[in-house]
Design a protein that fits this description.
The chain has helices at 2-18, 21-26, and strands at 31-40, 43-54, 60-66, 72-80, 86-92, 98-106, 112-119, 122-131, 137-143, 149-154. The protein has 161 residues and is mainly beta. The protein has two domains: 1-70, no CATH class; 91-161, Lipocalin (Beta Barrel). A ten-stranded antiparallel β-sheet has the order 1-2-3-4-5-6-7-8-9-10. It is globular and about 60 Å long. It starts with a helix and ends in a 7-residue tail after the last strand.
Length: 161
């Protein structure tokens, strides 16, 4: 039993934080749990640190972070489209209330072109992205809740001949 616990404790942290989506898909990982073990003169103190759930394509669909007492600190859920683009994220507080929701839109090349954020179902901000014909990002604009331009970034590129 101790061997299984040790294997679980050593293997899952690498799956959760060190493995790619491709590895999660290839290895058919459904979920991963990270357990924190603190050692002291009084003995071991263990607690579940986090839990991550994946869909069959290796996309993260649920992430939960726990407090040392075992209560949920925060939770994030995600949805994906048929092209495996993340189209929605919802952040929950410790009372499991949805507090922030982000939605994403993509162009035909699967480049993210828009991101909207709302809090308690009230629009907060929108971010738009533009790309050149090579698919490189050229512009990012952030709009506030009144949809006025708040900030902008522009990219330019130099190429080798």
């Amino acid at each position: 039993m101790r061997t299984i616990i040790l294997l679980t404790l050593f293997a899952f942290p690498f799956l959760v934080h060190g493995q790619s989506k491709k590895d999660a898909k290839k290895n058919k990982v459904k979920s991963a749990t990270v357990v924190q073990i603190n050692h002291s003169d009084e003995g071991e103190n263990r607690f579940k640190e986090s839990y991550i759930e994946f869909d069959k394509q290796g996309n993260t669909v649920l992430e939960i972070e726990y407090s040392k007492d075992g209560s949920i600190k925060n939770k994030t859920t995600a949805k994906y489209d048929a092209y495996e683009n993340r189209i929605e994220e919802t952040y929950f507080n410790s009372k499991d209330n949805a507090i922030i929701k982000r939605t994403f839109k993509y162009n035909a090349n699967n480049d993210r072109i828009e991101e909207t954020e709302s809090k308690d179902d009230v629009f907060i901000k929108k971010t738009t992205f533009n790309y050149d014909v090579k698919g490189l990002k050229t512009n990012k604009k952030i709009y506030n809740k009144s949809e006025s331009l708040k900030s902008e970034k522009k990219w330019s590129y130099e190429y080798y001949n």
